[in-house]
Amino acid sequence: MDKPTPPSRSRSAFLIPALFLGVISWLLYRNGESWLRQVLLYLSNAGWAREMVSNWSISWRVASRFVAGSDRDAAMAVTRDMNDAGLLITLDFLGESCTNEGEAYQARAEILRLLDDIDQRGLNANVSVKPSQLGLKIDPNLAFENICALVSKASEVGNFIRIDMEDHPTTDATLDVYRRLRYQENLSNVGVVIQSYLYRSEADIEQLIEDGARVRLCKGAYAEPAEVAFPHKPDVDANYLNLSRLLLSPAARAKGVYPAFATHDPKMIDDIKRYIQVNHIPSDAFEFQMLYGIRRDLQEELVKEGYRVRVYVPYGTAWYPYFVRRLAERPANMWFFISNFLRA
Ligand SMILES: Cc1cc2nc3c(=O)[nH]c(=O)nc-3n(C[C@H](O)[C@H](O)[C@H](O)COP(=O)(O)OP(=O)(O)OC[C@H]3O[C@@H](n4cnc5c(N)ncnc54)[C@H](O)[C@@H]3O)c2cc1C
């Protein structure tokens, strides 16, 4: 598998990362995990931190646990192996918040080639895209045109595009792109993502059920203010289960809704399993989704139990924000990062 060449690190470059990680560890010890999560989410967006951390070889060593490799060939190889283990895949060409049209077109060109490669190699994989990578923050019409080209191509080769959901200022524009594809362009091979941390999500899901949409339900990965999102995790979890019920309701199933439950949380997964068993919902009426590099044991266990499991496999060189959000979700991963650094 092709992995990006790790950046080289001189001895003199040891001090800055050591200091940085030392300060983070000390602050974590003093202030606790939820504080660290906020700091990491801030760092995931900070250009200066991206420049610094991307140049440490140790960063790639840890990030590569969550990223298939730097190019399509690496992603194809991982997909083949995981398909052989009974896992379905959704591939993500890493990148977000492009700053000019050219970058958005480059991402679109890469994803078009990706759809061809999946088709030619007969892989069981669909594709997830980030609207901001395709121009949403520059001009929603630019993102619409790019995503429309991708969904049209996917339709030609019998594939499916999932539009990932990003931070809350993009929610309306993202759902608007989705609706235009469904109703203006009559494309049905496209789905969206709803985040249980947002207060608005129940209303969005009710609307999407009316549309018979393919919805991925996740908890949400961005730093959001209390004006728009539940600040406390137990509320986010309770809403996740509430929304899962709506997506599995007889009304939703009658409309043809096909939900994807994206979580590594055993409590959510066990609860959904219990609910579908009690309500005699067939295991092919929905799927579980998890991220590459996280709980592979649980992914394979669910496959053995007869559930559909799709793994989100990112590839590319723009791994920094994706990687730091993964650290924020599980601050214990910081220790993995620090211990790798100390061993280097
Ligand atoms: C396939 C997929 C697609 C996603 N797409 C989006 C998207 O489009 N937009 C968006 O905002 N977010 C997305 N996310 C991220 C999601 O919103 C959460 O931030 C992320 O999944 C963490 O929440 P959780 O439910 O997995 O677990 P958490 O609520 O973070 O943790 C609950 C429990 O899950 C287990 N767990 C969680 N993480 C790990 C880990 N790294 N290793 C081991 N155990 C762990 C632990 O037991 C933990 O106690 C996606 C996630 C997945 C899996």
UniProtKB/TrEMBL annotation:
UniProt xrefs under Pfam families: Pro_dh
SUPFAM superfamilies: FAD-linked oxidoreductase
Top-level taxon of the source organism: Bacteria
Keywords assigned: FAD, Flavoprotein, Membrane, Nucleotide-binding, Oxidoreductase, Proline metabolism, Transmembrane, Transmembrane helix
Keyword Cell division: no
Transmembrane segments: 12-29
Record text on cofactor binding: Binds 1 FAD per subunit.
Chain's gene name: ycgM
PANTHER family registered for this protein in UniProt: PROLINE DEHYDROGENASE 1, MITOCHONDRIAL, PROLINE OXIDASE
Protein EC: 1.5.5.2
Main EC class the enzyme belongs to: oxidoreductase
Cofactor dependency: FAD
Protein name according to UniProt: proline dehydrogenase
Taxonomic lineage: Bacteria, Bacillati, Chloroflexota, Ardenticatenia, Candidatus Promineifilales
Record pathway: Amino-acid degradation; L-proline degradation into L-glutamate; L-glutamate from L-proline: step 1/2
Reaction(s) catalysed (UniProt annotation): L-proline + a quinone = (S)-1-pyrroline-5-carboxylate + a quinol + H(+)
Domain (Proline dehydrogenase): residue spans on this chain: 79-334
Sequence positions that bind substrate: K130, R325, R326
Annotated InterPro entries: FAD-linked_oxidoreductase-like, PRODH_bac_arc, Proline_DH_dom, Proline_oxidase
Binding locations of FAD: M165, Q195, K219, G220, A221, K233, T263, H264
Gene3D superfamilies: 3.20.20.220
Organism: Candidatus Promineifilum breve
GO molecular function: nucleotide binding; proline dehydrogenase activity
A biological process from GO: L-proline catabolic process to L-glutamate
